[in-house]
Amino acid sequence: MKYRKSGQNYLLRIDKGENFPAQLMEFLALTGIKTADVKGIGAVKNPVLAYYIPAEKTYIEKELTGDFEILALQGNITLKDGKPYAHFHVSLADENFRGYGGHLQQCEITGTLELFIYPAEILIERRLDQDTNLQVWNID
Fold it and tell me: Which CATH number fits the domain that encloses residue 79?
């Protein structure tokens, strides 16, 4: 993992063999960032995706096998119980140009993962929404 500051923002590169979001969490601990907008692109293998089923108020997970390009990674860092909480959506493509998407739970980097990180000026905590069973922004 390597990073550079650009004004108030950061550029973060997670390298081959490293894991996401573990390396991102390490970066957050190093920099003290608690709330941020994050976007990026890269290449990964064996990503674990999740999909929320509203009627059941729960997620299902699926591990994809093989190598994938990240076409778009978008998410945010907020706080849950006072600790950084990563929430990311991803669009992926395989070697046959088939697409996959969902919440990116974890993956191993195969080439690189290039992230733009935009820290927020306010802290955003999450709270459990009883109606949906989701951890939502507590901005009431």
Answer: 3.30.1330.80
Number of domains in the chain: 1
Q: Decide: 41 and 71 in contact? Cβ < 8 Å.
A: yes
As a whole number of angstroms, the distance between CA 39 and CA 55 comes to 29
Burial 16-25 (b: 16+ CB within 10 A, else e): eebbbbebbb
Residue-level pLDDT at 140 = 82
Per-residue pLDDT band for 118 (boundaries 50, 70, 90) equals: very high
pTM attached to this predicted model: 0.93
User: Closest Cα partner for 61 from 20, 106, 113?
Assistant: 106
The domain in which residue 73 lies consists of 2-137
Give 46-82 pLDDT, tens digit per residue.
999 999 999 999 999 999 999 999 999 999 999 999 9
Q: What is the DSSP string of 92-133?
A: EE-TT--EEEEEEEEEEEEEEEEEEEEE-SS--BEEEETTTT
